[in-house]
Each structure stands twice: as C-alpha cells, then as structure tokens.
Amino acid sequence: MVIRTMIGLDTNVLVRLFAHDGDAQSELARDVLDTLSPAFPGFVSVVVVAELVWVLARSYRASRTEVRRAVRALLDAPSFIVEAYEVVERALKRYATTACDFADCLVACTAAEKGCRTTLMFDRRAARNEGFFLLTGPYPMGYSQLV
C-alpha cells in the first residue's frame, strides 16, 4: 500500500471522536475523521496520544478501561498512523497491568526502546514498577550505580 498523503491530527480533534459531545466541533471532527482511510490516513503523534489520555481521564473522567479502549481503537484503526506504534502498544499493556499513569508508562517504554536501563523518577507509587527507579540521592558513586 502506498500512502499518498496524510494529515496530522491534534488532540482536540480526537477528543471529539471519543467524547461524543454533540457540539459543532464534534460534528466537524467527525466529518474530517470520516474522510480518513488507509490511503489517506490521519497521523497521531505520541504527544497527541498522551494528551488524549490525559484529557479523557481528567476532563471527561473516563475510567482506565475506557481510556484503554480509546487508545486501542486508535492503534487498531487502519485509517490512523500512530507514531511509535509498538512503544504506544507496550505502554498501553503496562497501563493495563499497573497503577501508573499512561504518561509514565509511555516515558518508561520509550526510554526502554532507546536502550535505557531504567527511568529515574520522584513518583514513589510509579517507581515500584519495573523500569522505574525512585530517585532519592544524592548518589556519591554516580548515577550509573543505580541499576
């Protein structure tokens, strides 16, 4: 399949897809999204995925299950090209099995993809999960000794 052209999608366009607000912006977003196809896909950056999750969870009070379904729908739709698809998919799996925020899962999975041994953080709850290390330093032996 040859992709002839592609358009980038902003977070708020995708929010309208999942929020079903019924307002004019929702209708306009739906009209645009209905024109997408594998030959004319919408590009979704990892930043947009992270923002989408945050908006759905915080502004629309979507449950973790609803958030997972929304991200899964993006990944599965042939009319969307999701940046770093495999990383987002791994982050989604981690999000489903931990209490971590999706953004933390995405950060850890992106770091691991790039060869990082761990991801340093101050979030005690998230740091209990694999791939994170709670930064409490200073570490006189150097940060390479953390892992």
From TrEMBL:
A GO term, aspect molecular function: magnesium ion binding
Gene3D superfamilies: 5'-nuclease
Cofactor(s) the protein requires to work: Mg(2+)
Top-level taxonomic group: Bacteria
The keyword Metal-binding belongs to this UniProt entry's keyword annotation: yes
Pfam families (UniProt xref): PIN
InterPro entries registered for this protein in UniProt: PIN-like_dom_sf (IPR029060), PIN_dom (IPR002716), VapC_family (IPR022907)
EC number of the protein: 3.1.-.-
Ligand binding (Mg(2+)): D10, D104
Sequence ranges assigned to domain PIN in this UniProt record: 9-128
Keywords: Hydrolase, Magnesium, Metal-binding, Nuclease, Toxin, Toxin-antitoxin system
Record bears the keyword Magnesium: yes
Annotated function: Toxic component of a toxin-antitoxin (TA) system. An RNase.
Family classification: Belongs to the PINc/VapC protein family.
Annotated protein name in UniProt: Ribonuclease VapC
Organism: Cupriavidus pauculus
Lineage of the species this protein comes from: Bacteria, Pseudomonadati, Pseudomonadota, Betaproteobacteria, Burkholderiales
Gene: vapC
